[in-house]
Amino acid sequence: MHQPPNPLTLDPDVEALWYEAIWATVKGVRLEDFTTFLQHRRPSEASALIPEELVTAIKLHVAREGGKPYHILLRGQEQYPASLGILDLPIMYYRGNVSLLKTPCVAIVGSRKASPRGLAAARRIAQSLTADGYTIVSGLAAGIDTAAHKEALRTGHKTIAVIGTPINRAYPRENTSLQEQIAETNLLLSHVPFYKYARQHYTLNRRFFPERNKVMAALSAATIIAEASDTSGSLIQAREALRLKKKVILLKPTYDNPNLSWPKTYVQQRGAFVADNITTLKQILGEAHV
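Given the sequence above, the corresponding structure tokens read:
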């Protein structure tokens, strides 16, 4: 077994190695699975619990890992946002302008198979909020996420994409160029480990996507759901945001949709808000900051 390094040292590559090793050790992909194992320690402080052969395999895998260059953001660094501390995530992989994490952020999320009305609403909201100085956070999925990111880019404003794959992979494939544009001009974030993702079946890797919604909820002062079904992953983000005492805002057409059961539950029982226009939405948002 390895001995932990001097706790006064903070080497990003060393911490990332142990971060990868811990993820490879835990059975699930939930943030709770990881943080239960970590127990608020730095990854390197848990190194004595990791088998030597696993560490060797991860080193070889990371050495072979191709793709674009990326950076490692460590908890405790000045750039690391305090908002993510509640998740006990010691590391985020990123590409782009990490200073955007210090700006006021609002998430816009919703259905992958969005209606024209939902897509238009996402674009209008993104355009208006970025003009007010907010950075738009979303998950680079098809539908609402894509519309929000593209509108922020189109108007020359700021956006952060939090993805559910390792930092050097893109999903869906049709958003590869959009992901690259965001990485080069704004900020691309991922907590997903390279080694575990490469070693396990894609059906298990799909579970990383709802977990990244928890990251978006923590990162953002508020979550706006432009449109979502009763089974949408956006509801995971809504639950997490409410748990963290963040604002969740639904649009009136979604709330009034007779085919959906979740909106009234979230508003009447869980404390979410309803906005029927941009003005109302901004009033609800207020001076929301992380």
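The longest strand covers residues 91-96. Try to locate this feature in the token string yourself.
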